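Revision sheet: structure tokens.
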Amino acid sequence: MRFGFFTLTLCVLALATTSGHAAQSANIPALVMTSPNSAFANYEDKCSNGGNLDNVNREKFLKLMLADKKSKLSQLKVALLNEIKQSGDEPRGEGVRIGEWNQTFHDRSGCGTNTNSYSAFVVTVTGGNANHTVVKSLVTIDDDDNAGKRTLKIRDIRPIKLRNDN
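Predicted:
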């Protein structure tokens, strides 16, 4: 009985590690920045059915933009930190946080073409024990795959003014 369970476990593990999605995520190509606000990566799979849209390169893209002083995302963070400083308040932690990314647009045409957008709130966090968190902007990036060429770019940054509590 133990031998049968062991064999079944090995078969399940072999199937899981050789599925298209798992195999694709193990071979993530280099991300190349083409401007402070855009990048691309060339994937081997030209017909991935969305498998080329990994979180690794999306996260790397966001980190590279934040590190580049010329990127819109970096400039937004600097402007919000300056706003905090001018208000006389103290930033809590980094002072500016980017929330969770949510898919806000998706269109797939066949197996090799995907157009997608992801959006996240940008918030300021200030104060000591009295935490003051305010949504300041909505950032949207495009994350598209066209037959293995994945492009990422900033689509828009929209200011949001929900409340003005002092």
